[in-house]
């Protein structure tokens, strides 16, 4: 059997990124892989603006806010010469006055600081609150030059590369593109992945139970995982357990898709026909990985179309998709970073029967003032789908190694596979 590292290295070496691109609107590009580097044509923000509602005024650049000049701001009344909502173009600030300003509004020429409204007291008429017909305000705190102002280009300077080719377009990335005025982006065309499930024992969800049959969870599992990652699914459904039917389905898949992915049928049983069918139509150069769950993982080609065969047990199919199929597909799609991140946490369990295969056990992460611990789901069978819903991660137990309470283990958060 191949080690986990050997299998993943082989898959990634075979994943040649595709080059076909298309242009999409931002809202249609979610989950796609960016095919261009986006350079900002503008500064963000485009002008100095107020960080909060308050009053814009000029402060002597030599003032430190604690000198007599700084304290003068708390001892006098200031006339309010203009009102500046966001989205307006203000007039230059009249000398010895302040401007009422609102969050995001441009700072007027002649002003260099903003006082938040909570540190201001608007004077009423009984306090002679008007001078030359203008309302007046007094401040309750000293003022520093530059305070509460977002500077031009503080976030993004004109000419900055804000997103690079190979970036997966999350809502945050799309918002960033929108913030510099982009309405469309060039992305790699989503891969077409053809999939079908095998097994005469499988029933479609929604049909009545039948003796000797189980409901087909793998179809929903794999189609959902592929859709979630932005791939275009060519769904060939469920086929019968025969070599001829498997060969026909594989040929159809090869004609319609960039990659073929199946579940089940890659073991050595008399009713497992995937392995023989792939070899009759192409070649199989990876079969079986030294891991649990998920040993019968296959990779090869049907004609010139890459083929990935996932195990039939649903937890095994889920684990091998996350650990092998996902990084392979993402690299082939053009994404730069494809391997999952691991963190070290302590085990809140004992694992005293080591296996020759690396084990990926379903766990929940718990954090307290003493650190982070993972608790083990009590049933770790490869058919126990409840473990994948209960768990928020996979703990890695190395080959031939016991784990004792308090030992450090590597933890793979499941949310990074979304």
- Content of β-strand: 25-35%
Question: Tally of extended strands?
Answer: 27
Principal-axes shape call: elongated
Q: Which regions contain 5 or more consecutive residues with pLDDT less than 50? A: 65-71
CATH-defined architecture of the largest domain:
3-Layer(aba) Sandwich
Q: Span between N and C termini?
A: 29 Å
Largest sheet: 7 strands, mixed
Portion of residues in helices? 10-25%
Give the integer mean of the pLDDT values: 92
Q: Assign the CATH topology of the largest domain.
A: Molybdenum Cofactor Biosythetic Enzyme, Chain A
Structural class: alpha/beta
* Total count of helical runs of at least 4 residues: 8
The CATH homologous superfamily of the largest domain corresponds to MoaB/Mog-like domain
Using only CA atoms, what is the Rg?
31 Å
CATH class of the largest domain: Alpha Beta
Number of domains: 4
């Amino acid at each position: 059997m191949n080690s986990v590292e050997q299998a993943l290295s082989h898959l990634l070496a075979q994943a040649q990124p595709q080059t076909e691109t298309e242009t999409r609107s931002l809202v249609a590009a979610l989950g796609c892989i960016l095919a261009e580097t986006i350079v900002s044509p503008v500064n963000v923000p485009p002008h100095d603006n107020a960080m909060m509602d308050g009053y814009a005024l000029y402060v002597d650049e030599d003032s430190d806010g604690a000198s007599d000049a700084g304290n003068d701001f708390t001892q006098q009344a200031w006339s309010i010469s203009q009102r500046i909502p966001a989205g307006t173009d203000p007039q230059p600030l009249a000398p010895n006055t302040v401007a009422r300003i609102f969050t995001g509004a441009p700072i007027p020429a002649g002003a260099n600081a903003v006082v938040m409204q909570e540190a201001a007291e608007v004077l009423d008429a009984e306090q002679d609150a008007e001078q030359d017909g203008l309302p007046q305000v007094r401040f309750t705190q000293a003022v520093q030059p530059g305070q509460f102002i977002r500077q031009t280009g503080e976030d993004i300077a004109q000419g900055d590369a804000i997103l690079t080719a190979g970036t997966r377009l999350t809502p945050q990335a799309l918002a960033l593109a929108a913030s510099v005025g982009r309405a469309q982006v060039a992305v790699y065309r989503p891969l077409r992945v053809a999939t079908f499930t095998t097994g005469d024992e499988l029933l479609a969800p929604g049909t009545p139970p039948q003796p000797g049959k189980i409901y087909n969870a793998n179809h929903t599992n794999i189609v959902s995982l592929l859709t979630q990652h932005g791939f275009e699914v060519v769904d060939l459904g469920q086929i019968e357990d025969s070599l001829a039917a498997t060969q026909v389905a594989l040929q159809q898949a090869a004609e319609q898709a960039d990659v073929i992915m199946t579940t089940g049928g890659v073991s050595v049983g008399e009713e497992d026909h995937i392995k023989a069918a792939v070899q009759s139509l192409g070649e199989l150069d990876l079969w079986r990985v030294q891991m649990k769950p998920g040993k019968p993982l296959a990779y090869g080609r049907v004609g010139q179309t890459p083929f990935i065969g996932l195990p039939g047990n649903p937890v095994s199919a889920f684990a091998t998709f996350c650990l092998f199929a996902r990084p392979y597909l993402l690299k082939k799609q053009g994404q730069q970073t494809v391997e999952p991140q691991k963190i070290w946490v302590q085990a809140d369990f004992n694992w005293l029967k080591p296996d020759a295969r690396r084990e990926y056990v379903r766990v929940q992460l718990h954090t307290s003032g003493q650190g982070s611990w993972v608790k083990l789901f009590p049933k770790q069978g490869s058919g126990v789908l409840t473990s994948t819903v209960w768990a928020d991660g996979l703990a890695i137990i190395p080959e031939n190694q016991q784990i004792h309470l308090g030992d450090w283990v590597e933890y793979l958060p499941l949310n990074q596979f979304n």
